[in-house]
Amino acid sequence: MTPAPAGRTRLLHSDELTRYDFGEDHPMAPGRVRHAVELARSLGVLDAMEVVEPPPADLELVRSVHTDDYIDAVRLAVSDPRHGLGTTDNPVRPGMHEVSARVLTATVAAARAVWTGEVDRAVNISGGLHHAMPDRASGFCIYNDGAAAIRWLLDQGCERVAYVDVDVHHGDGVQAIFYDDPRVLTVSLHETPQVLFPGTGFPTETGGPNAPGSAVNLALPPHTNDAGWLRAFEAVVPEALAAFAPQVLITQHGCDSHRHDPLADLELTVDGQRASYLRLSELADELCEGRWVATGGGGYAVVDVVPRAWAHLMAIAARQPVEVSTPIPQSWRDAVGERAPRAMGDGVDVGYTPITAGFDPASRLDQAILATRRAVFPELGLDPGL
């Protein structure tokens, strides 16, 4: 691969960040991040990036989005139902505070590098812990790194930050923290909360009284595939972002929307997920002068899906996309075992029909698209019609 210009894309990564896990029997299994980074390395993707170890954990950054009582509870590492600790989703683990704070600090460091102009783009695939609330853990998430990065940008004088979340689960923690802040637009595409955790993210959630139109929620029907997902994305996200005119784009790339993921019911492929990353890369260039901070997120098909999806994300962030037909290096396959995929894609066509070619009133997908447009587009000064 041809290296990108020196210093223009940065990966915040260290071995410590790979220790964010809840044990071998938990869906947030060890190896997710490590496998992705090693696959990217074996493909030459890291040669096109500046790989930087994140700074030490900064407690003040954690405090910028979490309460002192909650932080103290995490530090004690004991079960505390008031703060969501010690549950099946969020079991207590030694060192949980330290590694969670380091992940949060790494995402803020990525935002800092982009905002100060050190780089155009920065990635922390260990991040994307979007369910964490100010005073409690939720959905495998202890500290909300995306929210801390947004808070840091606002504190530095950034006037408009857009956050786009493509995880199969609603980005509820980030939305909740900034729901009444007109400087932040949160956009989430997720499986409908009627059937999936966390039970929020309905189209009618459009922002608080001081920030109407600041939350965009596209709740997709179960079994939505690549063509449907991309149709929905294109029908809502570009117009909403353009109307908001962000200065920085922050994205969360949970890849649990894949058809093989055990925790949800969408049917995307790695090829379709890669297409969404390419589109977000284009939107960062079109709307934010390239300023883009990308994080990981959910994803529980630990060998088959997560490494490929996030290797694609890193390659696209580095402006060196890897073709889906690219064979996976044998050295990586040998290291992860017999379940390792053979190619960087799933071998499918990701073409789709844009909704501008015709709205189908009987389609649950098109009904979801229209519900979102009708709920939030007028608050953004946009025509909700199709």
Automatic annotation (TrEMBL):
Pfam families found in the cross-reference section: Hist_deacetyl
SUPFAM superfamilies per the UniProt record, alphabetical: Arginase/deacetylase
InterPro entries given in the database record: AcuC (IPR003085), HDACs (IPR000286), His_deacetylse_dom (IPR023801), His_deacetylse_dom_sf (IPR037138), Ureohydrolase_dom_sf (IPR023696)
Pathway: Ketone degradation; acetoin degradation
Keywords tagged on the record: Acetoin catabolism
GO BP terms, alphabetized: acetoin catabolic process; epigenetic regulation of gene expression
Domain Histone deacetylase: 26-315
Superkingdom classification of source: Bacteria
GO MF term list: histone deacetylase activity
Gene3D superfamilies listed in its UniProt record: Histone deacetylase domain
Family the entry assigns: Belongs to the histone deacetylase family.
Identification of the protein by name: Acetoin utilization protein AcuC
Organism from which the protein derives: Microlunatus kandeliicorticis
Taxon lineage: Bacteria, Bacillati, Actinomycetota, Actinomycetes, Propionibacteriales
